[in-house]
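Data deposition worksheet. Section B asks for the primary sequence of the deposited chain exactly as it was used as input, without tags or linkers unless they were present during the calculation. Section C holds the resulting structure in token form. Section D is free text for depositor observations; keep each observation to a single sentence. Incomplete worksheets are returned to the depositor.
Section A, Depositor: J.P.
Section B:
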Amino acid sequence: MAIDLGDPLPIEAIEVHDAAGQLANAGAMTLTVTLPDGSTATPGFTNPSPGRYSPGVYIPVQSGPIFARWHGTGLNEAADEQAFYVRSLLSALPWVPALRAVAALVPNRTLDQTQSDPLVGGVFTANTVPTEDQAAELLDQAVAEVAGTLGAVDPSLYDMARSCATMRAAGRVELAYPTGDGTAAGREWLSQAERCLDRLGKANAAVAGTGTAGAAALLPQWSFPDPVSWGDRLLS
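Section C:
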């Protein structure tokens, strides 16, 4: 599941049962969150009734893949792990594409692997290759590359920036999970993204008055007539 940095991690509650199938507490329960850099956190949780454990509010401090693991030991052992992908602050940029826009460019990557005859042209889920979280991570990388190249984007060019990032993400998806002609398709999407980014960079510079087009419009122009043929005699 993908969430934005700064939002609470939606950890699901867990139920523990005894050998008879009745709700019952574990001997001891822990909740551990593993962050992208390998460090861990231990959010608080409650035990409102026998066998039921509910997480408190935990807000991730890092972007990337995060895992939350319940582990009950001793009497009535239990375990459950949940995976999340926390998107960076780049996801707040006004031109960032939706993940479904990337999926539309790579319809063969949205096939539900649990279905015998999956439909083409869906969205990324936990059952696709890549999964929703993996695709979101690739989209983050594409957005970071576009943002790092351009810096601030003029509002009039948001749609173009969105298109460039979408194509770049599609190329990354195809190359990361190639099947059939996926490698060729991935390279083509990346090539189109580069051409898009080049045009966007020039347009953005022109609007901001920092590129060739903008500078030409701001600098004064001088022109002089051709010299007369007898002018050199005046210098002698």
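Section D:
The helical segments are 99-105, 132-150, 158-176, 182-208, 212-218.
Strands lie at 2-4, 14-15, 28-34, 40-41, 45-49, 52-55, 64-73, 78-87.
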